[in-house]
Amino acid sequence: MTPELVTLYKTKVIPQLQSELGLKNIHQVPKLEKIVINCSVGKEADRKQAVEDAVKDMTLIAGQKPIITMSKKAIANFKLREGEAIGIKVTLRGTRMYDFMLRLLFTAIPRVRDFRGVNPRAFDGRGNYTLGISDQSIFPEIELDKVKRSLGFDITFVTSTDNDDHARAMLRALGMPFVRTKAQLQKAAEEKQAA
User: Fold this and answer.
1) Measured in Å, how far apart are the chain's first and last C-alpha atoms?
2) What is the 3-state composition of the chain as percent helix, strand, coil, each rounded to the nearest 5?
3) In this structure, how many other beta carbons lie within 10 angstroms of the beta carbon of residue 85?
4) I need a labelling partner for 189 at 20 to 30 A (CA). Which of 66, 141, 174, 179 fits?
């Protein structure tokens, strides 16, 4: 079964972006290639147990088991040895990627307290957007009674374009709730009055 976001992308987003960005070829329209979720538990005192808890929570959130990342070198001040588990990461593609994005945009992010939108300037200059989540409890899959420690992680949306403006337009069309600037709010109000 095709995810809802794929249907939305093919039927509405591609034609909209092609006209909005002035692209001649349909293959120039930016698309989402993968979503990478990265979590570090390096500062925890009981690092081994923290990594196991993070793997359980991330498996529930992403729907796919993450890989454990290891430290590359020993740092005495941080009580860190080479080859010790310090975090986890999971890469989502295809159906799982679109299912995760749908749950993130329409279920998890609206549950953040005092939410006013995500930062529209968190692009890396190559068309990739990174969103920081400070607590895993915004996802409905996580049972609050079983949460032992707060888990923050980064979600990176990797797109097929090198242009940040094109990637921003694509993510906005898919439903990413970017914070609007005063100029954008004023323009929207003027359009509403004109209609």
Assistant:
1) 38
2) 45, 20, 35
3) 18
4) 174
- Tell me if 61 sits within 8 A of 16, measured CB to CB: no
Structure tokens at 99: 């299912």
For residues 18 and 38, give the distance between their C-alpha atoms in angstroms, rounded to a whole number. 32
Residues 154-178: pLDDT tens digits?
A: 999 999 999 899 999 999 999 888 8
How far is it, in rounded angstroms, from Cα 20 to Cα 140? 35
Backbone angles phi, psi at 52, to 5 degrees: -65, -45
β-pair partners for 100: none
DSSP string computed for 149-180 = S---EEEEEEES-S-HHHHHHHHHHHT--BPP
Encoded tokens for 194: 């004109």
Residue 44 has what pLDDT? 65
Render pLDDT for 91-103 as a digit per residue (tens, 0 to 9).
999 999 999 999 9
Q: How far apart are CA 127 and CA 124, in angstroms?
A: 7
